[in-house]
Amino acid sequence: MFTGIVEEIGTIRSIEQKEEAMDVSIEASVILEDVEEGDSISINGVCLTVTAFTETTASFDVMPETFRATNFKDLTEGSKVNLERALAAGGRFGGHIVSGHIDGTGKITGKTPEANAVYYEIELPADLIQYFIHKESIAVDGTSLTVFGVKGNTILVSLIPHTMEHTVLGNKEPGDEVNVECDMIGKYIAHFMKNKNSGEEVSSDFLKENGYV
């Protein structure tokens, strides 16, 4: 479990790609302070397992499902990535509940500075937009952000200077792809609000027809 509070920006030092599988080595410092093999690390919002480490790098296996579902296919040697260790019991919960299981990718379609903030417009797949409402939490490349607008298949998020400086999002531009994880609570509610037998959504009309209202 993660919180979406990025601890540091790491650098891809090596990538060995075998079709849709990858072996990735990342240079870092903070996440290596207490690292052990088998630890979970969020890399651009993707929960991966440490397979080996040195004093300056940690290595990870990327399976085909992760390759296809995330922006890892765009990574090259020298790419910067957001890094966060799994939340320790008793640790500060500064962001929101983030599982590290990416729901899909979005595309940045706009980037507009306003006062001390920068607004990003992110276009999402049609099957994901249903999970978003105003002021909801979202993890973008593993960064906990707040949704400030939803229009069509596009959401609006805002980054403060600290986030711009301390995450990879500060260097993202329109056209770039980002990993997206929807709010976990919202996904569960959407699932439970569907009738398991008929597939009908539990709407006000459904409740009236079945005598609940």
Report on the structure:
- This protein is mostly beta strands and 213 residues long.
- It folds into 2 domains: 8-85, Elongation Factor Tu (Ef-tu), domain 3 (Beta Barrel); 104-197, Beta Barrel (Elongation Factor Tu (Ef-tu), domain 3), CATH 2.40.30.
- It has 5 helices and 12 strands.
- It has helices spanning 64-69, 126-129, 161-166, 184-192, 204-209; strands spanning 8-18, 21-27, 40-43, 46-53, 57-62, 80-85, 104-114, 117-123, 137-140, 143-151, 154-159, 177-181.
- The strands form 2 sheets. Strands 1-2-5-4-3-6 form a 6-stranded antiparallel β-barrel. A 6-stranded antiparallel barrel has the order 7-8-11-10-9-12.
- The longest helix has 9 residues, at 184-192.
- The protein is globular.
Highlighted features:
riboflavin synthase activity; Elongation Factor Tu (Ef-tu), domain 3; transferase; 6-stranded antiparallel beta barrel; 12 strands; 6-stranded antiparallel barrel; Riboflavin synthase; 213 residues; 2 domains
